[in-house]
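Last lecture ended with a question: if I hand you only a sequence, what can you say about the shape of the protein? Today we answer it with a concrete record. The protein is DHHA2 domain-containing protein. Below, first the input exactly as provided, then the predicted structure, then a couple of comments.
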Amino acid sequence: MSCETQLNTFLLKSKKDLENIDEKPCVHVVIGNESCDLDSAVSSITYAYFLSHDVLPESAVIPVINVPKKQFEVKTEVKYFLNLNSITDDMLVFRDDIALLGLHAANQLKLVLVDHHVLQSELAALNAAVTHVIDHRPRVAAASGVATHVHIELVGSCATLVGQRLHEKKLLQQPQIARLVRGTILLDTSNFSPVTKKTTELDRQIVALCEKEADLDCSRQELFDELVAAKTDISSLSTYSLLIKDMKKVFGVPLSVLTMSVKDFLERPDAEASIKEFCTEHEARVLLILGVIVREGSQLRDLFIYPNTCRPLADKIEEYLKASTTPKLDLHMVENKFGGKIFKEINTYSTRKQVLPIVERAIQNYDTETGINS
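The predicted structure:
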C-alpha cells in the first residue's frame, strides 16, 4: 500500500468501525476544540492515525471533527486543505455522527483531547474518560485532570507537538501526513512571521523535518497564501455563519473570531438580527466578537462586547480586559452599537488564547459575586 493511501485507509476504517461501535470493547476518540480550525482538525486526524499504530486490533480509533456536519461548510480553510490532500468529507466523522455520552455510559470510551485541555461545557460529563491531552495553550485551572498522558507546551501550533510524535514512528515520511502537518503549522504561525510572535524553534524544526522526511519542496509562502485565501473566503457565508465559523465558548460565553473588522461586520444589514439569533441559539449571556485583519505584514484588531441578557457580566468582562497586564490589551472604546461596545485593540500581538483566560476569570468572579456558583 502506498504511503499516500495509508491515512485514507485508516479514515475509512474509522467510519466502518463507527457502524459497529457497540461491538468494540474500547473506542479511542480523538477530538479537537470546538472552533474546529485547521489545527484542531489536522491534529485530531493525524494523532488518531499515530495512535492507531499502538492500540489493540479489536479497538477502534476515531478522529472526530468537532462540529455538526451541517456546519462544516463554514470551515473553509479546513475543508479546502483536507480536500487538497485527498481527504473528502465522506471520510470524516463529525460530532453529531457519534454518541460520546453513550459510549462513556457503556464504559467503552477513551477520550483524547488535542488543541485544548478543558472539555467544552456540553461534554463536561466525559471528564473521567480523558486519557491523553496534547495542547499548546497556557494551562488553566479547570483543566481536565484525570488524563495519564499530558503534553502541554507553548508552541505556535498543536500540530507541532503532534508532529513530534509522528516523527517518532517515522510517519512524517508519508507525504500526505507531512503536508498536513507542515501546512497547519505555517498557517498557525503566519509563515513564521515575527509580527505575530507565535513561532518557536520547535515549530521551525518540525516544518523542516516534514520537508526533509517527505521531500516536500513547494514554497512555504505560496502554501500560506493559499490557506489564508481559503480561510478569508467568506463570499458564500451568511452573517450568522460568520459568527460560528471560528467560535469558542468559555463558561457559556461565545467568543467569535472574524477575518474582517468588527466595525465592517456590524455594518451588514442583518448584523443585529444575526447576533440576536446567534445568542438565542447558544443561550449566550454575553457575546464577544474579535475582528482580525492582516495587512502588509501587520495586524489590526477590534473587539465587540455585546451584553445580550446580562449587562453586568459584560461590564465585568470589560473591566478585566482593560485591567489585564499579561497581556496588556490597551483597549480603547470607539463606538456604541446595538447596545454593545466596539473597542480598538492597540496591542495587536495578543491572541484569543491569551484573551480567553482573562474572560474566564471575569466570568468566574462575576458568578461567585452573584451567587450563581453557589
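Comments.
1. The chain has 13 helices and twelve strands.
2. The chain has a mean pLDDT of 91.
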